[in-house]
Amino acid sequence: MTSKATEFRFALLAFGLLAVIFVAFPQIDLAASGLFYRGDGVWALHRTSPWLFLPYHGLPRLGQGLIIILPILWALSFVRRFPALKARRATFGFLLVGGLLGPVLLVDATLKEHSGRARPVRVEQFGGAQQFTPAFVVADQCENNCSFVSGHVATAAFIMAFGWLGTPAVRRRWLLASIGFAAFMALVRMVPGGHFLSDTIFAWFATYFTLWLTEWLFRKLGWLP
C-alpha cells in the first residue's frame, strides 16, 4: 500500500469517527463555543475586532485572487514564449478545478446554502432566537450562508493543494501546514460566535476529499502524468 493510500484511509477513518462523535454528542459543539461566550449576547471578540479583521476579510480576498490568477497562468501556458508555465499547466488546472469544486461549489454553494444550520451567535443557548442543530442534520434555522461548514476554514485548508502533487515529504509538509492554518482560522471564526467546532473540522475534510476527487478525475482523463 502506498503512503498516499495509507493517508487516505487514515483520513477516511478520522472523518468517520469524528462524524459519529459529533452526531452522538452534539453538546461538544455547544461546550466549545461556550468557551468564547461571555453572556448577554457578548462574545470574546467581535468579528470587526482589529485582531480578527485582517484574517476574516483578507483570506477570502486571497482566495478570490487565486481563482482569477490561475486561469490566466493556465492560458499563458499555451503561449510559446512561456515554456516554464507550460511545464506547470497540469498543476495550474488541478489547483483551479480543486479550488472551484471544493471551497467554492461544495462548501459555499452547496453545504452553506442548504444545511440550514444557524450560527452559534444566533442560537438560543447564546442569546439568539434560533434552535441549535447538530452537525450533519439538515435544518430550517438558516436560509443562506449558514454555519455548516466554514468557508474560511475550507479556504485555509486549500493550501494543502500546493503540495498535493509533490513528493511524499513535500505533500506531508503542506498537509501539516494546512492543518495548522485551518486551526488558526477555526479559532478566528469561533471566537466571535461565527462557527461551531464541527463546522471548522469538517470544512478541512471537505477540501481534502475534494482534492482527492479532483486528482482522480485528472488522472482518469490523462491530464496528470
Topology at a glance:
Blueprint: H1 3-24, H2 27-34, E1 37-39, E2 42-43, H3 50-76, H4 83-86, H5 89-114, H6 151-157, H7 168-190, H8 197-220
Antiparallel strand pairs: 1-2
Helix pairs in contact: 3-5, 5-8, 6-7, 6-8, 7-8
Question: Can you tag this structure with a few keywords?
Answer:
225 residues, mainly alpha, two-stranded antiparallel sheet
Question: How would you portray this structure in words?
Answer:
- There is one protein chain.
- 63% of the residues lie in helices and 2% in strands.
- By secondary structure, it is mainly alpha-helical.
- Strands 1-2 form a two-stranded antiparallel ribbon.
- β1 (37-39) and β2 (42-43) form a beta hairpin.
- The mean pLDDT is 96.
Summarize the structure.
This protein has 225 residues and is mainly alpha-helical. It has eight helices and two strands. It is globular.
Rg, Å, rounded? 19 Å
Discrete helix count? 8
Side-by-side strand order of the widest sheet:
1-2
Give the total of beta strands. Answer: 2
Instruction: Tell me the fraction of residues in β-strands, as a range.
Output: under 5%
Q: Which parts are unreliable, with pLDDT below 50 for 5 consecutive residues or more? A: none
Structural class: mainly alpha
| Average pLDDT reading | 96
Quick one: biggest sheet?
Answer: 2 strands, antiparallel
